[in-house]
Design goal:
Layout (H helix, E strand, L loop, with lengths): L1 H10 L17 H6 L2 H25 L3 H28 L4 H44 L1 H27 L9
Length: about 180
């Protein structure tokens, strides 16, 4: 992540100040933090789909080596993605990072619980191969969100900061002449 940060800072001629810290209101932190996410997202999608099909064939052959190797790569790739997103979340919420992380954890755990709730039913009805192919497809749906965050995140954040500044000065939403 540090390498990506330095590369994006160099791309936009943004000076890095290790003593006072960087003013992220003028930096495309979304691009810096999510720059390498494509590799890990791709590994996750391929390995999750492969995991399901390996489970299907493992039931017949009793060989779990491929399943375990795929679990390792899925775990490593998802851990990298969580770290990238968690760091970006902290960067975007410097005044209350704990609240931002807690909110993220609640959503993540709720979605995990939902996935787990339907997992066995899906495996029973369509088999492990197709079940994990569906889960890989859900991971693929994340890609447009990452593109949107990288492309428009800086503009969205800048607009939000302007709105907060206007509210602080008491000029936002005022209809009085």
């Amino acid at each position: 992540m540090d390498r990506d940060y330095r590369a994006v800072a160099k791309m936009y001629d943004f000076p890095i100040d290790r003593v006072k810290g960087d003013d992220l209101s003028k930096f495309r932190i979304e691009r810096a933090r999510l720059r390498s996410s494509w590799y890990f997202l791709g590994i996750t999608i391929v390995c999750v789909a492969g995991y399901g099909w390996a489970l299907s064939y493992q039931m017949e052959s009793k060989n779990i080596a491929v399943v375990l190797v795929l679990q390792f790569f899925i775990g490593a790739a998802i851990t990298c993605l969580f770290n990238m997103c968690g760091t970006l979340l902290t960067d975007l919420n410097p005044h209350n990072p704990a609240l931002a992380q807690a909110s993220s954890n609640i959503i993540r755990c709720a979605l995990s619980a939902l996935g787990l709730a339907v997992l066995q039913e899906m495996i029973d009805h369509i088999g492990p191969g197709w079940t994990f192919t569906v889960f890989a497809g859900l991971c693929l749906l994340i890609a447009p969100m990452v593109v949107a965050e990288v492309r428009w995140g800086f503009a969205w954040r800048s607009k939000g900061l302007q709105d907060i500044e206007l509210q602080a000065h008491g000029t936002a939403g005022s209809t009085d002449p």
